[in-house]
Amino acid sequence: AQTVTQSQPEMSVQEAETVTLSCTYDTSESDYYLFWYKQPPSRQMILVIRQEAYKQQNATENRFSVNFQKAAKSFSLKISDSQLGDAAMYFCACLQGAQKLVFGQGTRLTINP
Amino acid sequence: GAGVSQSPRYKVAKRGQDVALRCDPISGHVSLFWYQQALGQGPEFLTYFQNEAQLDKSGLPSDRFFAERPEGSVSTLKIQRTQQEDSAVYLCASSLVRWGSQETQYFGPGTRLLVL
Fold first, then answer.
1. Domain enclosing residue A25, as ranges
2. How many domains does chain A have?
C-alpha cells in the first residue's frame, strides 16, 4: 500500500526567511507523481508544485522548489522569501496509476511578521 | 473558466438523515474524484469517475455512501442514514485525462458536513 508521511505537524518561519517542509513516501511503483498542495483556512486546496518521478531535475515554481531524492523516497518543499500569504496547511501527496491521490497528514505553516 | 464548485458549503444533519452533496467539475474535465477530510487530517480517497463510469469506489467507507455522475459532468455524493462519524469535509476534484500523463487534480472548496 502506498503511504505518505509528513513528520512535522507544525512549522513556523519569520517573514522573508526560508523554510523546508519534509515528506517521505512509500510506493512499489516505478512511475508515479508527487505533489505539494496548500490549504488555507478557507479550505480550497491549491496546487503548489508537482514532480514526475522519472525526472531527475527538481521542480521549481517561483519561490517554491522541491528536493526530490528518489532512492530515499523523500520529497521536501522549500519556500524561499516566506510571505504572510504562505500561511496554510501544506499537504504532500503521491499519485500513481490508480489515479487516486494519497495524502500525508499535513504540516501547518505559520509565518511570523 | 471557473474552478470546481461544490454545494452546499455547509450542511448540518441530524443523525439518521440522508444528505446529498453536489460537485460541478471544471468544464471539459473528464475525471472526477471525491475525498473525505476529517478534522486535522489529510484528505482520503473515496471514489473516482471517468466520464459517467465509476472506475474506483474502493474508498467508500460503507454501503451508506453512494456516488453518481449520470451525464459525465455534475456528480452527487449521497450519504444515507448519516452517523456522527460521517462528520467531515467532503472535497471534490477534477482533472483532464491525457494518454500517458497523470494530470493534476484541481479541488473545490469542499462541503463541511456536521452530523448531530
1. 3-112
2. 1
CB A79 within 8 A of CB A22: no
Q: What is the CATH number of the domain that holds A50?
A: 2.60.40.10
Structural domain harbouring B42 = 5-115
User: Distance (Å) from the C-alpha of residue B40 to the closest C-alpha of chain A?
Assistant: 8
Spatial neighbors of B89 by CB under 8 A, at least 6 apart, are A43, B36, B37, B110, B111, B112, B113
CATH number for B57: 2.60.40.10
CB contact under 8 A, B48 and A47: no
Distance from CA of A71 to the nearest CA of B (A): 21
**pLDDT in single tens digits along all 113 residues of chain A:** 789 999 999 999 999 999 999 999 998 887 889 999 999 987 789 999 999 888 889 999 999 999 999 999 999 999 999 999 999 999 999 987 657 899 999 999 999 99
**Interface contact A44-B110, CB threshold 8 A:** yes
In this complex, the residue of B35, B59, B104 whose CB is nearest that of residue A47 is B104
Q: How many Å apart are CA B9 and CA B22, to the nearest integer?
A: 10
B49: which 3 cell numbers? 469517475
Q: Which residues of A touch B35 (CB under 8 A)?
A: 101
Give the total number of structural domains in chain B. 1
Contact B76, B24 (CB under 8 A): no
